[in-house]
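Final report, Chapter 2: Outcomes

The project's central promise was a pipeline that accepts a single protein chain and returns its three-dimensional structure in a standardized token representation, suitable for archiving and comparison. That pipeline is now operational. To close this chapter, we reproduce one record exactly as it appears in the project archive, with the input sequence first and the structure output second.
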Amino acid sequence: MQTFNLNVESSSVSDTTVEPQKPLLVIIGEDLGLEAIISNVDSPSVPTVEPRKPPGMITDEGFGLEIVGNEVSYGQSQVVEVKADIVQSNTSRISLSSPICRLPTEILSEIFLYCLPEDEHLLYTSRLAPMLLTTICRRWREVAVGLPMLWCRLQLRVGYNNWQQRAFCYDSWLKRSGECPLSLSLRCRTDWRELQTMLQPYVRRISSLSLIILSCNSPFMMEDFDALKELTIHQYIPYHSARAINPTLSTLPVNLRRINMQDIWFDRKLLDVFTDFAWARLTHIEISIDGLDAFTRLLRLCPNLSHLKMNAVFYPIQLPEPVTHTNLQSLCISWDANWNLSGELDLFKVITLPNLRVLEVCHTGLWPHESFMEFLTRSKYPLERLIFDSAAWTTDRERAEYATLIPSFELKADAESEFDVDEE
């Protein structure tokens, strides 16, 4: 090993001196081991006072610094590579030792499905599955993105800020659903057209749809929704509700069978707007009815109706024309007789339902026992199950008669009801 001679004769230098510790960087041509590089690069150096260069010192600073700089750079790169190898080795060992990382893709996919929130429609947020699953590691992201069933339910909002960004996120979500049927919830407070444009590539896969209407600027049209089977409409417009609803319900998709519109009250005038052809295919309806004439109109609009659940307000008006419906099998009706104090409830006087199997009644007030018995006789006693809310004012004798005529008679307990009809 060759070094520069730093000891020269000088009168200014004492005979007895302590030679300073030789720094690594002044060594030229020495075999630089990795351990020496690490100790010199990564470890903090102890501050020292550089010895004063004696006059006449022979050194080639340009040549020496260039070589030293190259050696240090090479050493630093070696340290970085070693550290990267160590991190990768540790990560691999952790991954291989974790049981969940060794699960087959099929089992991991099933676990992911159980991670989904129980909400009917999912939010686009990184805090919840399925988006959360894509942020854990590369393999989880690949499995989640490649599992279409994770991306079949979504809640979309229009009329809020950053619509372009929202539209891009919604579109990327729906693309991951593959060819699976879609269940969507659409919330709009301005104009439906932007949302309908974004959904155009997916309309033939939407099987379930929930519309939350916060504005009536434009109707939501569904002519192309050929796969739609279930529709729910929530409306929060205090005025001009017909303007928002009529165009949407005037032309229904050909395969639509179920509608839930319990947030919307329909009177006879509003129901007259719709054609029999548009509603004829419906089999399940949940609705709110304003007036007995609206109820009979609904039965005529929907000849294939098999299940009906409705809230109702009936007024003591002249009787509408009686109607016979041969396909209705289940009727769940809730109304308050306080609206009918001036006269007897005439519901059962105007309907004949020969195939009705289940009748569930939530009713407060005096129960029209005589007209109900006439209804059963006229319909040839089809009922297999009768469910009464205990708030209905009935006598023990009437309930005993129902229990005799109907195979299954249930009386629901109501803690708030304290009324009991005394037998005469």
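Archive annotation: The radius of gyration is 41 Å.
This record, like all others produced under the grant, will remain available to the consortium after the project formally closes.
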